[in-house]
């Protein structure tokens, strides 16, 4: 008998049917991957399971009993624990890791009112022993890596006798090595009888973990793939059209470079490196978290001064001090995590599509200072047309767009004016395969500028780049040309 | 299909609640004015309405300044103290230094701008949280205004701390700022308020600068990465707010005709309340100059009407508080319950 049985689940947000009769079964001791493009209904399904949304229709049974949680607490009590993507909220700065582990026990009153530090430590250590992994109990929660924060959440889930663990993009913000550790832990938990449902866009995750992949599209489950999982077929099912050969033919570039970096040390004491980018070239930089991908981009964009070295732009000395000087010189950057680095909060002025595109170009488009005329709407419409953005128009709130379309708008922003170098930091975060394909095509279509992309996913680097560089300890090395495969890069 | 039902109901409900939110303050305004006019016909005549507008003009001008600092994600608590010390500064300039209107006004506006600059320095450069920086500035100014006159109010014939008598007097031209009327109907402060409101509305809602001010408050990092100078934008906001506060002080001084130590006590609270009530106007849920002005006028109309109906003076603060609580409940409560 399956642990969880979902039948005909439906939920609508206004006119949008986020779930339209989704049915699914999950057995104990099984890892199920939930795949789907943005807007396919994955998040809604997870929210219904986690008790944050109520289904309009449909039935769910958990271990044979009807299951319809009205709140996350009810879901947890029934044994369904969800670990959300933003793990910052698992604890709080100022709490020790041990406190963060016991937070739920403090909240539901199962911990005694008076607790000594040693008692807290002992209980937390017990939890970790049961979970089977190590964490630094006395460290401040704020100092933990994203991967460790996730483990805190998982340990807490296990201590509450979870029978189904739901993970939302568990490896989205952690490095390859940390992912491996997570895989090992999750596989062991599965072997101990836990059912695990995880959302991921990463082929590496699916390969390493999934016993079964369930593909959603348009609010229903459209396909199921058992082991060995045929990923190309799964992805085609997911985007609803055949996948064109995504891997581009790497082009080679000669002649005068657009941007030259010489003897650059990103941090004091790191090995100096050189880098040259040519017009039309797409270069990807990949490496583990904290290796210096973002730092490299920030050095070029002027938000972080490198410890040493020189840069030349079109042969002239280039020494940016602020984003403004970089943009003035023709160097554009779309930062990591679009919500943090590019978008306005909803309901705030400038939170719709057109102002999102125009933000860096206001001075150029409105030299008199008054926002008169339709320039930004025209430019936004152009972005919508050229990038195939699915939106109701230039006035559409950014929050009404799916992740992939939001990212297209950000790309449209920096495509709206000519540039010499475009820097993209993790441009495929939370972007489904279909949109990723469109974005890659658009990036590669521009032959006038050089594009430098930082990504922690080697697959993405292979898909988008003419040339791949590896960054480690803040210094660059070219990827082995002979075996340009994901494995070679990850090793 | 049963889902069809929920589909068509939801957007309808949302649209209706959005429409209610957008017009709620205006509906209340109309109902309120109609009610007062029925109970007391003198309420609706032009002279009374103008006196209401005159009464709220200073609060509205200060509120516009608060709105700009709210737009950049800050908060200026020093405006009340800036206005009060501007009253003292204007009086001191004329009575002790014997300056005329053309020297006094620029001097006092400069003083306000300077306070804004210091606020900005504390907040932008030294990274003091805005509430704390402007709160400290409030204390500082409240004390500072007492020092030159050793705690005395300033009026003609003031005896200075060194024992001599001040020889200057209020410039009659200065008093016109607070006491004259255009066409015998529209008081000068109302004209100034209208001008300020118009200029700030255009600045915040229709210019590139306004877009960037709001962008700073919405997402500072995104604004910086888009090439804007966030420190400069924040500085501008606090300088604007300080200057507007001193303009409010000038109007108060010109109306009262003397430098009262205790003037401007309730200005901070009233203007902050106006800016917050403004969140509810048009259902915008964000600072906006138009809403702030409407908020100030709303409170003025209400207080005047209650006074005409012989409501005791001491109930005023309670009424203001009730309006603010209601407006905020309207802004954040209504229509949000469906969202989650």
TrEMBL record, chain A:
<protein>
    <submittedName>
        <fullName>ABC transporter ATP-binding protein</fullName>
    </submittedName>
</protein>
<dbReference type="Pfam" id="PF00005">
    <property type="entry name" value="ABC_tran"/>
</dbReference>
<keyword id="KW-0547">Nucleotide-binding</keyword>
<keyword id="KW-1003">Cell membrane</keyword>
<keyword id="KW-0762">Sugar transport</keyword>
<dbReference type="GO" id="GO:0005524">
    <property type="term" value="F:ATP binding"/>
</dbReference>
<dbReference type="InterPro" id="IPR003593">
    <property type="entry name" value="AAA+_ATPase"/>
</dbReference>
<feature type="domain" description="ABC transporter">
    <location>
        <begin position="253"/>
        <end position="491"/>
    </location>
</feature>
<keyword id="KW-0813">Transport</keyword>
<dbReference type="GO" id="GO:0016887">
    <property type="term" value="F:ATP hydrolysis activity"/>
</dbReference>
<dbReference type="InterPro" id="IPR050107">
    <property type="entry name" value="ABC_carbohydrate_import_ATPase"/>
</dbReference>
<keyword id="KW-0067">ATP-binding</keyword>
<dbReference type="InterPro" id="IPR003439">
    <property type="entry name" value="ABC_transporter-like_ATP-bd"/>
</dbReference>
<dbReference type="InterPro" id="IPR027417">
    <property type="entry name" value="P-loop_NTPase"/>
</dbReference>
<keyword id="KW-0472">Membrane</keyword>
<keyword id="KW-1278">Translocase</keyword>
<feature type="domain" description="ABC transporter">
    <location>
        <begin position="4"/>
        <end position="243"/>
    </location>
</feature>
UniProtKB/TrEMBL annotation, chain B:
<feature type="transmembrane region" description="Helical">
    <location>
        <begin position="79"/>
        <end position="99"/>
    </location>
</feature>
<feature type="transmembrane region" description="Helical">
    <location>
        <begin position="263"/>
        <end position="282"/>
    </location>
</feature>
<keyword id="KW-0472">Membrane</keyword>
<protein>
    <submittedName>
        <fullName>Sugar ABC transporter permease</fullName>
    </submittedName>
</protein>
<feature type="transmembrane region" description="Helical">
    <location>
        <begin position="318"/>
        <end position="335"/>
    </location>
</feature>
<dbReference type="GO" id="GO:0022857">
    <property type="term" value="F:transmembrane transporter activity"/>
</dbReference>
<feature type="transmembrane region" description="Helical">
    <location>
        <begin position="182"/>
        <end position="203"/>
    </location>
</feature>
<feature type="transmembrane region" description="Helical">
    <location>
        <begin position="18"/>
        <end position="39"/>
    </location>
</feature>
<feature type="transmembrane region" description="Helical">
    <location>
        <begin position="105"/>
        <end position="124"/>
    </location>
</feature>
<keyword id="KW-1003">Cell membrane</keyword>
<feature type="transmembrane region" description="Helical">
    <location>
        <begin position="289"/>
        <end position="306"/>
    </location>
</feature>
<feature type="transmembrane region" description="Helical">
    <location>
        <begin position="51"/>
        <end position="72"/>
    </location>
</feature>
<dbReference type="Pfam" id="PF02653">
    <property type="entry name" value="BPD_transp_2"/>
</dbReference>
<keyword id="KW-0812">Transmembrane</keyword>
<keyword id="KW-1133">Transmembrane helix</keyword>
<feature type="transmembrane region" description="Helical">
    <location>
        <begin position="131"/>
        <end position="151"/>
    </location>
</feature>
<feature type="transmembrane region" description="Helical">
    <location>
        <begin position="236"/>
        <end position="257"/>
    </location>
</feature>
<dbReference type="InterPro" id="IPR001851">
    <property type="entry name" value="ABC_transp_permease"/>
</dbReference>
<dbReference type="GO" id="GO:0005886">
    <property type="term" value="C:plasma membrane"/>
</dbReference>
């Amino acid at each position: 008998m399956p642990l969880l049985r979902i039948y005909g689940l439906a939920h609508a947000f206004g006119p949008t049917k986020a779930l339209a009769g989704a049915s699914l079964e999950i057995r104990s001791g099984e890892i199920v991957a939930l795949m789907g493009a943005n807007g396919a209904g994955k998040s809604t399904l997870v929210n219904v399971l986690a008790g944050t949304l109520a289904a309009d229709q449909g039935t769910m049974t958990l271990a044979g009993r009807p299951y319809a949680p009205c709140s996350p607490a009810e879901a947890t009590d029934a044994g369904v624990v969800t670990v959300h993507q933003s793990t910052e909220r698992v604890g709080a700065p100022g709490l020790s890791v041990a406190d963060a582990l016991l937070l739920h026990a403090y909240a539901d009153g199962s911990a005694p009112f008076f607790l000594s530090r040693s008692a807290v430590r002992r209980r937390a250590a017990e939890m970790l022993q049961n979970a089977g992994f190590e964490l630094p109990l006395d460290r401040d929660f704020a100092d933990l890596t994203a991967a460790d924060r996730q483990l805190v959440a998982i340990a807490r889930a296990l201590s509450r006798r979870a029978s189904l663990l739901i993970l939302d993009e568990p490896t989205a913000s952690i490095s390859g090595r940390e992912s491996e550790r997570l895989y090992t832990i999750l596989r062991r938990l599965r072997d101990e009888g836990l059912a695990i449902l995880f959302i991921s866009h990463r082929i590496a995750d699916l390969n390493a973990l999934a016993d079964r992949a369930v593909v959603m599209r348009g609010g229903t489950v459209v396909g199921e793939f058992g082991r060995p999982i045929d990923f190309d077929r799964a992805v085609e099912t997911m985007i609803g059209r055949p996948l064109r050969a995504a891997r581009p033919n790497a082009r080679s570039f000669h002649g005068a470079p657009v941007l030259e970096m010489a003897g650059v040390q990103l941090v004091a004491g790191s090995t100096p490196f050189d880098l040259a980018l040519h017009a039309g070239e797409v270069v990807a930089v990949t490496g583990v978290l904290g290796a210096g991908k973002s730092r490299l981009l920030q050095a070029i964009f002027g938000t972080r001064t490198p410890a040493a070295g020189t840069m030349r732009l079109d042969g002239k000395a280039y020494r940016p001090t602020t984003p403004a000087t970089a943009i003035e010189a023709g160097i554009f950057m779309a930062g990591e995590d679009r919500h943090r680095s590019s978008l306005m909060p909803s309901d705030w002025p400038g939170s719709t599509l057109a102002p999102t595109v125009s933000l860096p170009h206001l001075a150029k488009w409105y030299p008199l200072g008054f926002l008169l005329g339709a320039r930004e709407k025209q430019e936004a419409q152009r972005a919508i047309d050229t990038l195939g953005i699915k939106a109701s128009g230039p006035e559409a709130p950014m929050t009404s767009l799916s992740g992939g379309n939001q990212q297209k708008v950000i790309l449209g922003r920096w495509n709206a004016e000519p540039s010499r170098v475009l820097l993209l930091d993790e441009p495929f975060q939370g972007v489904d395969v279909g949109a990723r394909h469109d974005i890659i095509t658009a990036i590669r279509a521009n032959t006038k500028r050089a594009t430098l992309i930082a990504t922690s996913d080697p697959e993405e680097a292979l898909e988008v780049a003419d040339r791949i560089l590896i960054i480690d300890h803040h210094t660059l090395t070219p990827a082995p040309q002979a075996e340009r495969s994901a494995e070679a890069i990850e090793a | 299909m049963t889902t069809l039902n929920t589909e068509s109901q939801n957007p309808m409900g949302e649209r209706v609640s959005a429409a209610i939110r957008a017009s709620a303050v205006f509906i209340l305004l109309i109902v309120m004015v109609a009610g007062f006019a029925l109970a007391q016909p003198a309420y609706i005549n032009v002279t009374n309405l103008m006196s209401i507008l005159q009464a709220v003009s200073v609060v509205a001008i200060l509120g516009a300044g608060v709105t700009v600092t709210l737009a950049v994600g800050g908060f200026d608590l020093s405006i009340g103290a800036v206005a009060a010390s501007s009253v003292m500064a204007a009086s001191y300039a004329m009575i002790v230094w014997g300056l005329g209107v053309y020297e006094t006004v620029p001097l006092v506006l400069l003083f306000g701008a300077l306070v804004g600059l210091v606020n900005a320095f504390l907040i932008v450069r030294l990274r003091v949280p805005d509430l704390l920086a402007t709160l400290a500035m409030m204390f500082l100014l409240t004390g500072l205004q007492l020092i030159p006159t050793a705690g005395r109010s300033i009026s003609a014939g003031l005896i200075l701390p060194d024992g001599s008598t001040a020889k200057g007097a209020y410039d009659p031209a200065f008093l016109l700022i607070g006491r004259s009327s255009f066409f015998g109907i529209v008081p000068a402060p109302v004209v100034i308020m209208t001008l300020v409101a118009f200029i700030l509305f255009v600045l915040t809602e229709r210019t590139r600068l306004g877009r960037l001010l709001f962008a700073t408050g919405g997402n500072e990092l995104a604004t910086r990465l888009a090439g804007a100078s966030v420190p400069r934008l924040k500085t501008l906001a606090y300088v604007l707010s300080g200057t507007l506060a001193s303009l409010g002080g000038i109007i108060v001084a010109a109306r009262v005709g003397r430098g009262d130590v205790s003037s401007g006590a309730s200005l901070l609270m009233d203007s902050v309340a106006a800016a917050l009530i403004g969140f509810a106007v048009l259902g915008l849920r964000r600072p906006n100059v138009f809403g702030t002005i409407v908020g100030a006028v709303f409170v003025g109309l209400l207080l005047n009407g209650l006074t005409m109906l012989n409501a005791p003076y001491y109930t005023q603060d309670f009424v203001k508080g009730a309006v603010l609580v209601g407006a905020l409940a309207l802004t954040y409560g209504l229509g949000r319950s469906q969202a989650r």
